[in-house]
User: Which sequence fits this backbone?
């Protein structure tokens, strides 16, 4: 097992570097357009040429590319992602402030997604080809197609027309969970439900097909033959094994959750990373944008690593395979 | 004009609101310092539906219907913090009070710094005292004797002392003197400064010949020539008085710690893009100026909190409903009315002097040639476009037509009822048909069909300009047959400012600043040597009129000259075709008293008059 | 798709010996419609979308920027109030009527007309980006798998990393660096779809490469190119068609997301319509409902069609 861990870790190091390089290229190949955008909004220079020069100097893009690259790698490894052009504070500090709401939303998303998708996936599998199955599968297809932001709009309409309530929608109304759980959940409820339902669709489909696979296996048939109750068969034998590939998806889900949250956070004014990304783009605060992209990329690499390892831990065949 | 604080108490004044809301897409950086002077911080909401305050008499005939001002109400209860939306905490160009061009930024400054004089009522154009004892005495049309009130001290709190310990340890608590005033003016015309290009009010102060210090509280300012608007210069939005100690070696004070002045509020907390909070200055030199009007010991609140607006309408509505903010305005007049009806509050409008316009290159420049040398072609465009539809679509129906000087700058602009009779500004169906027919005729007569495809450079911010642009193209094509192509300046103003400087833009479509005084509205734009003359316009008659206006010391005569200039511009120039400007419907809670609204940014000192009525039933449930 | 490679059905092997013979197109289509009603529905909607895009000038009833005005109930010629001095107002945010099937938007433009015109952006960006992405993906997948070894591992790791990276983030990054235009968005979406295509191609190639007949072709002396073109490529086609179809759905969703946030290219887009619509969704939900519905229908159609195609063409791909 240890050998496996080490080998996976080593394999991921070049990937991390790859990610850093890609982000570097995207961000430091500052096109004329990008520089002009920053120049026009963020300097007090008297004219455009001076502003562009100033921006290039501030961002360091007036140096040779390889020098910038080395500097960049060094900075990133030290945890210095530059300073926000707007607030002049380190990007990492700004990100840290915004992380908790996004994490919370992501967790709630996942909770909703699992709550919705697991039972439906199971039911759909064990009642395969019944009318329930067809109905649920059709619903899942619809789920997959419906954009989470559309679902959110529909939920807003329903909330307003049926319950007569809309969630508080200012960034300043946001209270984190410890300080005021009720208000906190009020703000996060709709985006979590909309995002969770949308994500739940793919989980449900995967779970269903995995369950079907597993239910066909010999050892399950043996369990049936032994006369075990349905519930036992399903949970004790089938579900565990079916969950393994679902875990693979979990790694992908972090990425999906984050991008889904960008839109939902913007819609519902949740002061998390997603909203921060959008406002930074609007305000041409490029170091922040690049910083967020880099952080997400690195987090993803490590999430995939964690998934790999969990996978290996759960399924011994892989460790030694 | 006599000295003393002037409060407008005419009949027919409505309770209007002055908070500006800027949508996330409507933020504009300031125009380039060298003064192509285009789009400045965009602003806001609009929408009609203003309502008359119960009991108010009908408007003074001939005046614009939403004549504005604001009613001061004798104080009932004091204390509490004002909560409102503002873009004060936006960290764009610089925090330096004389170098920034961002409206919300100099709104922050107007809480913290004082000026020699100030506009008591931006709409009526009434100037009153701030630091000065009264309106300066004018000697020989050239010399102004400015007397500063003693006892104006720079903010002093333990935090400020801490902040300034390494920068200006002697400043907190020090008295402001004539020397500070002299410094603040001379700084802006100091050509040796590395920042000299950024002082975009330099063209105002360039009229100063010399400043002599008579004693600690008295200065004599001598101008090079008779300058009618000089008193206005001392009261203008950015005419702050700052302490020399706060300016760093590169001639900049771009740091929130250095925002220490003598104004009614002191910076308490400033988180960029989140919140700007200021607390009451208990020793404000002007605190008892309004005791007669029932407002002693100002400011009457403990401070204010300005939240950075990062959501959208639904967010703001929710915050307003729950009284997390005391006042807000938005785009959609129908929803505002609905909300107002539901909450039992009246919607009031506060038209801004910012306006949407099209600049036309009137004569060939080294950088571009133009087909619009013929006035008839420009007139045709001026008549062809339907301002009604423009206002309805861009500004959701909350709009007013705008002439060369906004009608809401009541001292100088052609009044609305008169403007509404002029071609292009007439909205009746028959008149509109006549104007369109005239447009077609002029276009044909001047050879409009030979004009090929034209490029219109337009701003991407405010968003409604970008959204409306295809409609503008449609109108020009349908009426005149003019094919156009859009060149979007997504950044808001880079292409526009640069292009304007180089006199390269043949046609534009953008949002522009409004001004307090006639001189700022016309001279820099239309004078052949004007810093904002991007039209390459050179008209000797007009130059003469503009110079005469500037040299005219009698206000009545100057007003007259102003009207003549505007008539001339509409008849013979049309270098800048002025379209429409927003009204800003706003709602405020009934406990929010003594609120005056203003036509543009930079009037935060009026927050000192506001008090929160704890006894008002609506005050229940307001979060602290 | 871990662990799938071993589970090749024997019957598929047998088929590989002879060059594939396609049955008559109409016959297949007919059978497809009957056996897969959902897929048929999807295909129908796709056809409708294409018709909408192509026939917009005729079908839309009105122009894309055409504004409608109605008399102003508050008109008062003697008044100077901004609500009263114009005799007409734009017919904004109207509910569906016979003249405006989907109602009007905040500019008084017909929503139905704009949805029809908006189909052009949807299809153009969707189909074009995926076409480019497929071509590139095939090239990468083919070469990477065929040459295997270090090249393959590196490319695969790269593709894996890229695929797990949220597409929206990448697109937003592109928007900051390049001016938003249909071209840059299309290219961005093409790039985003490359990894999944290349992965499919690669796995098929890996399977096919081990086939005895490929070895035989080697022995005979067939060139790499001929082997790739003659033997491997045809097997790749079926899964590619499936991925392509489903991919268009994903790309449409991505384009709508980017436009929804306001970073899309200028011009009419359903995503941007939804963004506008949600601003007044509580008073006049029609714009939001119909534009969001259009996006959902488009994505749904491609997903259903893709699913059905997959069931028919290559059940091995079933998740």
Assistant:
């Amino acid at each position: 097992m240890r050998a496996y861990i080490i080998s996976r870790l080593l394999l991921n190091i070049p990937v991390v570097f790859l990610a850093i390089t890609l982000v570097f290229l995207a961000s430091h190949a500052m096109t004329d357009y990008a520089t002009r955008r920053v120049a026009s909004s963020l300097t007090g220079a008297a004219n455009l040429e001076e502003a562009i020069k100033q921006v290039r100097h501030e961002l360091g893009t007036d140096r040779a590319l390889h020098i910038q690259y080395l500097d960049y790698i060094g900075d990133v490894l030290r945890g210095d992602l530059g300073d926000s052009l707007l607030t002049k504070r380190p990007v990492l500090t700004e990100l840290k402030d915004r992380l908790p709401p996004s994490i919370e939303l992501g967790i709630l998303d996942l909770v909703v997604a699992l709550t919705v998708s697991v039972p439906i996936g199971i039911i759909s599998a064990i009642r395969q080809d019944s009318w329930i199955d067809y109905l649920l599968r059709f619903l899942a297809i619809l789920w997959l197609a419906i954009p989470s932001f559309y679902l959110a709009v529909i939920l807003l309409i329903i909330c307003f027309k049926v319950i007569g309530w809309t969630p508080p929608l200012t960034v300043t109304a946001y209270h984190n969970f410890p300080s005021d759980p009720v208000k906190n959940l009020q703000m996060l409820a709709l985006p979590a439900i909309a995002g969770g339902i949308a994500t739940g669709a793919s989980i449900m489909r995967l779970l269903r097909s995995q369950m079907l696979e597993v239910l066909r296996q010999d050892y399950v048939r043996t369990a049936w033959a032994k006369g075990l109750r349905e519930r036992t068969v399903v949970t004790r034998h089938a579900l565990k094994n079916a969950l393994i590939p679902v875990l693979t998806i979990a790694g992908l889900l972090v990425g999906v959750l984050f991008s889904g949250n960008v839109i939902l956070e913007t819609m519902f004014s949740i002061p998390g990373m997603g909203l921060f990304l959008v406002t930074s783009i609007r305000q041409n605060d490029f170091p922040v944008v690049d910083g967020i992209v880099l952080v997400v990329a690195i987090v993803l690499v490590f999430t995939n690593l964690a998934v790999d390892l969990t996978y290996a831990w759960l399924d011994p065949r892989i460790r030694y395979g | 004009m006599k000295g003393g604080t002037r409060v407008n108490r005419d009949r027919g004044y409505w309770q209007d609101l002055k908070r500006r809301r800027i949508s996330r897409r409507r933020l504009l950086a300031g125009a380039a310092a060298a003064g192509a002077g285009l789009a400045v911080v965009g602003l806001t909401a609009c929408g009609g539906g203003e309502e008359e305050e119960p009991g108010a008499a009908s408007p003074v005939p001939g005046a614009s219907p939403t004549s504005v001002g604001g009613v001061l109400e004798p104080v009932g209860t004091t204390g509490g913090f004002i909560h409102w939306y503002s873009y004060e905490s936006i960290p764009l160009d610089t925090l330096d009070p004389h170098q920034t061009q961002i409206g919300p930024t100099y709104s922050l400054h107007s809480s913290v710094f004082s000026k020699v004089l100030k506009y008591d009522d931006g709409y009526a154009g009434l100037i009153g005292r701030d630091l000065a004892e009264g309106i300066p005495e004018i000697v020989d049309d050239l010399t102004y004797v400015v007397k500063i009130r003693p006892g104006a001290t720079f903010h002093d709190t333990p935090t400020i002392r801490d902040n300034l310990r390494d920068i200006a340890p002697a400043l907190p608590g020090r008295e402001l003197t004539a020397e500070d005033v002299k410094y603040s003016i001379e700084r802006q015309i100091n050509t040796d400064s590395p920042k000299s290009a950024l002082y975009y009010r330099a063209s105002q102060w360039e009229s100063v010949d010399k400043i002599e210090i008579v004693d600690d509280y008295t200065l004599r300012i001598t101008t090079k020539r008779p300058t009618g608007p000089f008193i206005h210069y001392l009261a203008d939005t950015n005419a702050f008085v700052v302490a020399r100690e706060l300016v760093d070696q590169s001639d900049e004070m771009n740091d929130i710690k250095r925002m220490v002045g003598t104004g009614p509020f002191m910076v308490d907390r400033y988180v960029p893009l989140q919140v700007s909070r200021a607390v009451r200055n208990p020793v404000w030199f002007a605190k008892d100026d309004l005791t007669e009007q029932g407002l002693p010991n100002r400011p009457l609140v403990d401070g204010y909190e300005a939240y950075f607006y990062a959501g959208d309408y639904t967010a703001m509505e929710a915050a307003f409903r729950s009284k997390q903010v005391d006042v807000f305005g938005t785009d959609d007049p129908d929803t505002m009315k609905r909300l107002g009806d539901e909450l039992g509050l009246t919607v009031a409008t506060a038209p801004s002097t910012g306006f949407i316009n099209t600049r036309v290159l009137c004569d060939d420049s080294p950088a571009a040639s133009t087909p619009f040398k013929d006035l008839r072609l420009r007139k045709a465009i001026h008549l062809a476009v339907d301002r009604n539809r423009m206002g309805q679509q861009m500004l959701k129906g909350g709009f007013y037509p705008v002439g060369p000087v906004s009608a809401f700058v009541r001292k100088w602009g052609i009044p609305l009822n008169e403007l509404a009779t002029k071609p292009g500004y007439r909205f009746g169906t028959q008149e509109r048909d006549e104007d369109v027919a005239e447009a077609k005729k002029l276009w044909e007569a001047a050879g409009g069909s030979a004009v090929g495809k034209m490029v219109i450079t337009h701003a991407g911010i405010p968003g409604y300009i970008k959204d409306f642009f295809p409609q503008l193209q449609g109108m020009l094509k349908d009426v005149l047959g003019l094919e156009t192509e859009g060149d979007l300046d997504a950044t808001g103003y880079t292409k526009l400012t640069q292009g304007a400087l180089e006199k390269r833009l043949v046609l534009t479509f953008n949002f522009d600043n409004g001004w307090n005084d006639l001189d700022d509205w016309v001279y820099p734009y239309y004078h052949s040597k004007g810093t904002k003359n991007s039209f390459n316009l050179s008209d000797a008659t007009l130059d003469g009129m503009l110079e005469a206006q500037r040299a005219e010391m009698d206000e009545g005569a100057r007003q007259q000259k102003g009207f003549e200039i505007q008539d001339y511009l509409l008849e013979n120039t049309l270098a800048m075709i002025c379209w429409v400007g927003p009204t800003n419907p706003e709602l405020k809670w009934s406990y929010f008293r003594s609120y005056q609204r203003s036509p543009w940014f930079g009037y935060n000192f009026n927050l000192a008059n506001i008090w929160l009525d704890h006894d008002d039933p609506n005050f229940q449930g307001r979060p602290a | 798709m871990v662990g799938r490679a071993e589970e090749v059905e024997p019957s598929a092997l047998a088929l590989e010996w002879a060059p594939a013979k396609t049955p008559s197109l109409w016959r297949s289509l007919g059978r497809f419609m009957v056996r897969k009603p959902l897929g048929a529905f999807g295909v129908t909607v796709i056809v409708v979308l294409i018709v909408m895009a192509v026939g917009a000038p005729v079908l839309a009833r009105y122009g894309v920027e055409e504004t409608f005005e109605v008399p102003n109930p508050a008109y008062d010629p003697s008044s100077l109030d901004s609500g009263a001095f114009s005799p007409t107002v734009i017919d904004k945010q109207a509910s569906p009527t016979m003249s405006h099937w989907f109602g009007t938007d905040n500019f008084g433009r017909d929503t139905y007309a704009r949805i029809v015109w908006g189909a052009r952006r949807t299809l153009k960006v969707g189909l074009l980006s995926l076409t480019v992405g497929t071509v590139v993906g095939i090239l990468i997948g083919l070469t990477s798998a065929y040459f295997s070894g270090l090249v393959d591992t590196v490319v695969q790791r790269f593709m894996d990393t890229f695929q797990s990276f949220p597409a929206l983030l990448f697109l937003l990054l592109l928007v900051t660096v390049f001016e938003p235009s249909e071209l840059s968005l299309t290219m961005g979406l093409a790039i985003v779809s490359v990894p999944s295509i290349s992965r499919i191609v690669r796995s098929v190639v890996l399977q096919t490469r081990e086939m005895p007949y490929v070895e035989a072709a080697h022995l005979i002396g067939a060139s790499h190119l001929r082997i790739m073109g003659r033997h491997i490529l045809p097997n790749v086609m079926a899964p590619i068609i499936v991925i392509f179809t489903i991919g268009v759905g994903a790309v449409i969703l991505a384009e709508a997301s980017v436009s929804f946030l306001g970073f899309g290219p200028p011009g009419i887009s359903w995503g941007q319509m939804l963004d506008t619509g949600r601003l007044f969704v509580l008073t006049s939900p029609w714009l939001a409902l119909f534009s969001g519905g259009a996006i959902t229908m488009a994505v749904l159609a491609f997903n259903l069609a893709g699913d059905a195609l997959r069931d028919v063409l290559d059940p091995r791909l079933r998740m």
Q: What stands out?
A: The radius of gyration of chain A is 24 Å. The mean pLDDT of chain A is 77. Residues 230-268 of chain A form the longest helix (39 residues). Chain A touches chain C through 59 residues (CB under 8 Å).
